[in-house]
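#data-curation
PF: Archiving a pair of folding outputs for the training set. Convention for this channel: one message per protein, sequence first, structure tokens after, nothing in between. First:
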Amino acid sequence: MITPGPAGASLMDPGKPLILVTGATGYIGGRLVPRLLAAGHRVRCLARNPERLAGRPWPGVEKVQGDVSDPEALAAALRGVAQAYYLVHAMGEDRPDFRGRDLRQATTFAEACARAGVRRIIYLGGLGDPTRHRSDHLASRQEVGAALGSSGVPVLEFRAAVIVGSGSASFEMLRHLTERLPFMITPRWVKTRCQPIGVRDVLAYLTEALEHPDLSGIYEVGGGDVLDYRDMMLAYAQARGLRRVILPMRVPFPILSAIWVELVTPLPMALAKPLVEGMTTEVVVRDPRALEAFRVRPMVYREALELALRRLDEDAVETTWASSLAGEPEGRALGAYEGMLLERHALHVRARPGTIFQAFCALGGESGWPAGNWLWQLRGTLDRALGGKGMRRGRRHPRELRVGDPVDFWRVEALEPDRLLRLRSEMKLDGHAWLQFTVRPEGTGSRLEQTAFFEPHGLLGLLYWYAVLPFHWFVFPGLIRALKRRAEASVTESRRGR
């Protein structure tokens, strides 16, 4: 089903051809859509869960629920589409069949595009000499490009290496390693040559592509200089005013490096492993035709780095690597209370609903949880030990939330300004869990309700709930009292500032 976007001001030109963006909930897709809108293009997005796009300020964008492996959903999504962006991949999904699944999805998408009469597919793949790949994920990215062209629809394929931008997986890996380790004994892959490119330049290439509708083929894109990963980390340290020592050494198995990255950085093993494997392969531009065909003049690494750091310092990160990772099966929503185990707390708060809403929307991330934070951290550590996400993902923004945002091991499922926030757990559980906050006017203040919902799966789910109840009795009453204190303190500070 195609859902029209929200009403509001839009620069879209109704006379322009319709563009489909897949992967709009992801890191690149989530940044591309507003740039296409600013350029006046008509945009439709395909997403497994369109609700994750509900908080995006994208007036006029159509949303279609579906998956690139579903021919019926693709037929609806591609109806009337002139060009389609293919921005989905399996990196971050730790499954042994990812390479075959990527190929099947790309082939299905290509066949659907051919049937729908799509004039061109635009795809973002990976750099690297295909004869020297040591990484299944890099090889898969280029195989997908070939599969997209298997049905005869022209394909414009951009190939890029490390994308430097606030929130990108590769940038966050290098950032956390450099920030947290003053002395590093590293694998020799840190001496592998790479041509990093700023995310703004990648988006500029993808956007300008629509101005060249007859252009197809492979275009390699890279930044203004070629570095190795050690140079990149040292440049980061210099930009942050840090002193770092990096000593490369021989590490026989890349998986050991991936385990270390998983322990030190926020990235899960499912992302760390392909990133580390990719770093053993040289990824530099060998064919500079992109500089001749497009107006983009890529910035050097230091400039891209400074822009990324500025975004972080200003809390202006648009999307992050965690935005695109699936957690619980899509479409799972909070059901009826029957069969649910509940724990509810309510308090009267001497503050307006908007002030309280801001307080519970600032939970998690680097600020932590105001009651029993060490227990939250312990639960996150246990989740990581069980193969879950733990607390590593943090937040996109320290105060603002939108549907689909990760918040530690939660995901924002529902958000109604000044009224409701519902978080869905993405921990490893024998059941499904939610944490919901609601606020409404009450007398001279507001009534704040906090409810934990748990839908157990079988006996193990019930045993889990009753095993953690003693911790709940400490954490949840403390949490709602802390929110009350924060909201009322905010009111007091506001009055003093008048």
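PF: Second:
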Amino acid sequence: MRTVAVVGTGLIGTSLALALVRRGLTVHLEDADPDAARTAASLGAGTTDPADGPVDLAVVAVPPALVGRVLADCQRRGLAHRYTDVASVKAGPRADVTALGCDTTHYIGSHPMAGRERTGPLAARADLFEGRPWVLTPTADTDTETLNAALEMVALCGAMPIVMDAGAHDRAVALVSHAPQLLSSLVAARLEHADETAVRLAGQGVRDVTRIAGSNPAMWVDILSANAGVVADILDELAADLGETVTALRALEAADEAGRRSGAAGIEAVLRRGNNGQARIPGKHGAPPTRYETVAVVLGDQPGELGRLFGEVGALGVNIEDVAIEHSTAQQVGFVQLSVAPSAVARLNTALREHGWSVRSV
């Protein structure tokens, strides 16, 4: 594959174009908003000049509701030999593609499982897809060459291909992406009119839960509109769980001991179910989750401190498996939580204290 057309230069389209240009491909950019295409081109994502003839692959990077119409237009113009899209929902666009009479032999749906809270070409990154799953949803008549072209695109972006049925994909992303987005927004909405003193107490827990609530509402309306029924089904189940949890919490306030025991048992059951679900999320490099221990270090908010800490940990021969930073709202310090192998905790605590670092108990 040498030439690609990217139709739609938002976050995903521009990131894809940047990744392919970095690998030496010629990328032609199109967008309904010419300014967006020119911005992407100025970032090094390709050229706005039209291709001399059909490119090897055209990538339709538009909202789910527009995929069918844009694909039909691209095929009518003979833009490419083969086509894919990168919409976050697959069943709806596939139905539109079929209804519009598009050529499905040379088309395959796809969805890179990557994104950011920011949108538009200026938020794009060439490494956005590296190490991320990238779902491919071939139709019954997608030919082998089209599948291979999509696999090559995924490989060039450093992602991991996963072949799925379109409906199964939509049910999966409703569970792991779309419903969590709404829940994050609902929790964050509780803060909108909260007392300022309460908001200033926000720690890492609420920051973790509400991080994706900063996402673009218009973009999510497009996504959720294309997968509304499946997401609603999941939220119905969550609503039932919430109802039972509220009942259990009310029972904890009961005057009789039996009521309080019943409430405690209900809350414990919810928390244990959460433990079990969280434990199923894949760990490092997709391996089964590994139990790491946390070493928390107080870090001054000044240039070079984080690099110095990482350097000293590395010099000790300790691998940092994960890292999180919690910022103090009252002082110019942060709390860096280093996830390391349990066998390294005691040695790391001692060495860091000897080097003058303030180490917190976790």
